[in-house]
Write a structure and sequence with these properties.
It is built from 33 helices and 11 strands. By secondary structure, it is an alpha/beta fold. α28 runs antiparallel to α29.
Amino acid sequence: MELRYITNGMSSPEGKPKVYFSCHPADFDTAFPMIPEDILRHVNCAVWYDPDMAAVPDPGELEEIFGEMQLVVFAVSSHFLYEKNRAKDLELPLALDRHIPILPVMLENGLGYEFSNRCAKIQVVARYVTDPTATPYEEVLDSFLSSVLVGDELAQIVRDAFDAYVFLSYRKKDRRHAHRLMRLIHENEAFRDIAIWYDEFLVPGEGFNEAIKDAFEKSSLFAMAVTPHLEEEGNYVMRVEYPMARDRQSREEGFGVIPVEMYEPEDAVNGRDWRIDPANLRHHEEFKYREIPDLRDEHRRPELSSAFLEALGRIARKEHDGSARHRFFIGLAYLNGIDVETDYGKALELLQSAAQDEDPCMEATAKLAEMYLHGEGVRFDQAEAIRWQKLLSSQYLESYDRNHDPDAHKGFGTQYFRSLLKLSDMERDCGDHREAMETLRQALAFSEKLEEEVGVREQERDLAILHSRMGGLCRDLGDAASARDYYTKACRIYERQAREMGTQRARRDLSVSYERLGDLCRKQGDPAGAEDYYEKAKAIREALACDSLSCNGRRDLSAILTKIGNLRKAAKQYTEAEKYYAEALEMDRVLAAELRTPQAQDDYGVSLTKAGDIRKALGDLPGAAAYYEQALTLFENNIRESESRIFLDHYAGGCEKLASAYKKTGNTQEAARLYRESVKCRENLHASSPTPSAAHALAAACFNAAAFLKDRGLMHRAFELWDSLSRFHPEYRKYRDRAARHLS
């Protein structure tokens, strides 16, 4: 594999967190320009990738590369999910097996469920968030990256915690030997805090020599992996690095050089088939030393350990207190491969020790919760993540009780409050909604104490977030009255903040709060209340769309216009509904032209379909058919590029609607073709995921096609599906009985 990288400003990747990007080959040209750029906006890292995603990599080489990565990012599309490709079939299982954090970024909406069923039950991130009430993509991405990757400031603190540095010299061909040599050094517990600099995936070019020089100067020991590859002419190790080390050793007392012969044990049994012949080095014209003195054998452990003990014992070590915080930093180093080899076992041991210390490092406790939540260096385990998060909350509360003087506080109250919010999210994601609600009640009981730490305004914002989450949990638990009460409390705070601050963020928060209340009213059968809240949200979003030309603002406005249109349509106020749908349609048309993404095209197609529905309701069947035809063209173009379930569903629905319009306008031949196409598409959707909703949609398609085509077989298929569904879901009996009447 010829790995390449991308960084901010194409600066050197040396020392930066390492992220591996992968996708289906068909998605590379679309996904690669977007997703690494998204990541680099939030964290200063190096995103590594193979430009030839169709090539099959050597498994051993891929394992070595993944051993260096702190995060693996996959661009997930229908191609990724439904076709054979190395990203899904080779790299994803390897990342899961190695406990490397994984970030699946959905390129199409509606794929999260499929990814969970087909690939892994881990957090996914939707790049195109069309629901304004959902957390924006950028916020979700930032939260995930900050929890997994170590930023520049923290990385420097980690590096400062090391006792000293060893410069490890090796040829790129010998990467696996270099990794083994690092582990040999760190086998001795006394050298746990010794950092080892090596050039990772650094490639010769601008800044290469400077990076080597800087690392060499801060190192106190030079270790070299010696293999027959050093006998080859023109290699950088023998031409530059080793002579540089020997020269420094000759003039600087205390600087050590330890060359270590690296080979597999079977080579020793078979003679010297693959071991270096020092005599061959004499043929190097540029090599000023005619031999490698004091060459150590990696398999003679006592002698090798003795050499390192003597050399490292001379290194002037930093004094550190051995505190839990120091162990936390060294644990982070081993977890993220910061100037040491990645060693998840050693990282876990150090972090657990720091978190459970008599004077615990709460950053270590928080990191352990994140590790189990994301499968970072450990198995993915939500229950274990919750256990560490509960410990973290108790540690923050205990620290707050000791340091809650408003003139000398250390922010432990705020950290306790926010740790409870996160704990509640984790409990909710595990399906334990009642426990999540109880945790939020603890946060609510504590919230009044936050004012002394963060001030009234920030405390109110935290309180609004808390009320919104409590409202969401009550809604999920079926307690609509309590949900409305909590949502209203959050709304009152957002109204005050929007009035007093007037920032775009405050106004958008308020519009989302209005939308949630509107959704709840609609669900409770209060369309007038729903429309009132939707209109308030609409007014804010119209202003925001004028203030900012961002796509997100216009998409948010389109969503609320559509919801008002839906209310008017349900009330059979078709002319009014058409007005709102028309505004949303124009916005979606412009967004589709600007963004040129499948999701934007799909959004536009859905808006065209709604416009067609209104024309049909008003008796204008040719007008309805014209809208349906435009929509179907968009849906058809999308499924040529992608087999996303949501795109296939919209295509099938488009076939059904256009077939119905053609049936009534006399275009029976096209109506028949489209009915059959709809059934075929619904069969595929049901076969790939036989959910009740997919079965019902297939039954409806069969019923409509059968009624038009006079096809008894299709009618019987519809009856069988609804009959099966009605055994567990009584609401489907009316559909079954209707099909039965057609069969009698």
